[in-house]
Fold each of these.
Amino acid sequence: MSQALSVLCAGAGGYVGGELLRLLYQHPHVGKVTAHSRSQEHRAIGDVHPTLAPLTDAHFVGGELSELVAQHDVVMMALEHGESARLVGPILAQPPRLLIDLAADFRIADPSLYARYYGPHPTPELLSRFRYGLCDVYGQTLRDATTIAAPGCFATAAQLALYPLRKLITDTQPTLFAITGSSGAGAKPKDSTHHPARAHNLFAYSPFSHRHEAEIVQSLRAWTGRSDATARLLTHSGPMVRGIYLTLHAKVDAVLPPGTVEAALHAAYHDRPLVRVLRKPPELTHAIGSSYALLHGCQSPDGKEIQVTVSIDNLLKGASGQAVQAMNLALGLPETSGLHAVGVFPC
Ligand SMILES: NC(=O)c1ccc[n+]([C@@H]2O[C@H](COP(=O)([O-])OP(=O)(O)OC[C@H]3O[C@@H](n4cnc5c(N)ncnc54)[C@H](OP(=O)(O)O)[C@@H]3O)[C@@H](O)[C@H]2O)c1
């Protein structure tokens, strides 16, 4: 790749959009970044995202997104749910080299599975055009992809836990217990993200109905070949701002020899540059600020139960970092370009 890339980022005023800008402005193969926002048009990027002020004096642009597409190699969309599906038609009519959507609109290939969790899809005919960008699993197979749906944050952590064990788990409904920070709900203030409601507090939400289950079920069925495979995602809101901490628990029919789970994790991820398999359970803060996933796996003394713990930054590995990783893979760039930052601790 000789020429620097130009990237159009829609939804750049939001939390995920801000993190995308931070990564893209520091990416060695990106020469031009256009930050699109309906609500922040004409404002300085550094006024909306103060940490980015040293990186750019540029301002947000507004107007019709589709009219800006032709001037860019890559389009990234970090919009609220449903907006990508509404806007993507004219963009795909004159497609950029690569389109990456970070919302849930195009993550599910089967319209009936989508409908079960989200209601009817407004443009079901477009679902099959998107590749599912779970980068640490699909890696180089994303090369030359032109249209990618970046996975959800909980779904990323859940699938990274499940993938190595897909052949071992006989339990048709593994349990995934997860806690997220308040930035997972976006920049717009809500009762459930208000500081007094979140600080020093912990509560379950979306019992038996979290929408990310759809992505997890879709992958589990594809990986196991079992059409009845499902998964239960137990989601909780935690007192932190960033991060997802997830624990998978599953039963197995056979007795696993000692070290089986650890070996499966190493076999799946030994050559994946942004996954680290640890010797003890990760801590949430050790992933914050980075695009790494930190994993630990073990089994019960009788070899009949599996536990895997995952720590990720929801805004990076769970969103913008994984989207940049997908861009690198699709365009044949080094997979970790622009993603070398390690975590910040304490934070
Ligand atoms: N947050 C996460 O951890 C996470 C992880 C994975 C995927 N996602 C997905 O990524 C997409 C974007 O998520 P997000 O967390 O970035 O949502 P967000 O902060 O609410 O931003 C989404 C868009 O809403 C508008 N907006 C609403 N209120 C705003 C405000 N007060 N300040 C600035 N912009 C505001 C902006 O678009 P305009 O200015 O154009 O109106 C913004 O781009 C969603 O589909 C989400 O599901 C989020």
Note: The longest helix spans residues 316-330.
Amino acid sequence: MLRFKQLLFTLYFLLNLASCSKDNSNPVAAVSNENSDTTALSSSNSSNSNDETTESSSTIIGDGVPSVFTKIYGASDIYIEDSNVIIKVTGIPDHKSPYFNTSDNMYEDYNGSNLNFNLNPNKITGFDFTYKIPLNPKKSDKSNPTALGSIGVSINGVSFFNQYAGPNNQPLTNEINSFDQYNGHPQPQGVYHYHIEPIYLTSKVGSNSLLGFLLDGFPVYGPEENDTKITNDDLDEFHGHSHSTEEYPDGIYHYHITDQDPYINGSGYYGSPGTVTN
Ligand SMILES: [Zn+2]
Ligand SMILES: [Zn+2]
């Protein structure tokens, strides 16, 4: 019974992850989501975000995990399974946000610079995300477009999303106004995510630094290299390029975040994507 419920929940989750946060235009969907099992099942995780913050420095690292993955300080567990790296996160940010409940001490009023800021109706919820990404990523010969929903994980455990707000490549235009002071926001099920530069992370670890991984196992770096701003012109169609980095002295393909569309990833993954499940 429990397994069946989990399966249902997973299916429900995957279906719903496909819509980002169009609740402004669809209040009925937002209401029905609030009454769904998803909310009920996950609420136990969402209430203790402070515990998550204090626990985040004690990631359990399995045997043989390359040290680069220990940079994902927001993970609870990281281990190797077959030819994949398994990364477990709740997806709750370790920075404040107006998308926490006001009673949560991670709550902070919007204090960013966007005069058109518009709080969406969603609240940050914790999940038991399991990312399974290739240990030794390789270029893929076929096209692997990114899907809506999580396309990768950042070092604090928050999801990266692509440059679209919803199905049929809807641009982020309106959604940008609901990004909080750290450039993130939750979708209707409460999955907090970044579509653009996660400025909490770039101010914490530096704009030249590794900020996470996409599902294909290739790393994501910040908007600068050698303290010089990266532009889309420096990158290929997938929004990356290859050279040596601090973590990969022998060179590696990597994505960069830029301040222009597509921000994190272009026309799909460079490699074959792994999976994220809940
Ligand atoms: Zn979004
Ligand atoms: Zn680079």
Note: Residues 40 and 207 are 38 Å apart (CA to CA).
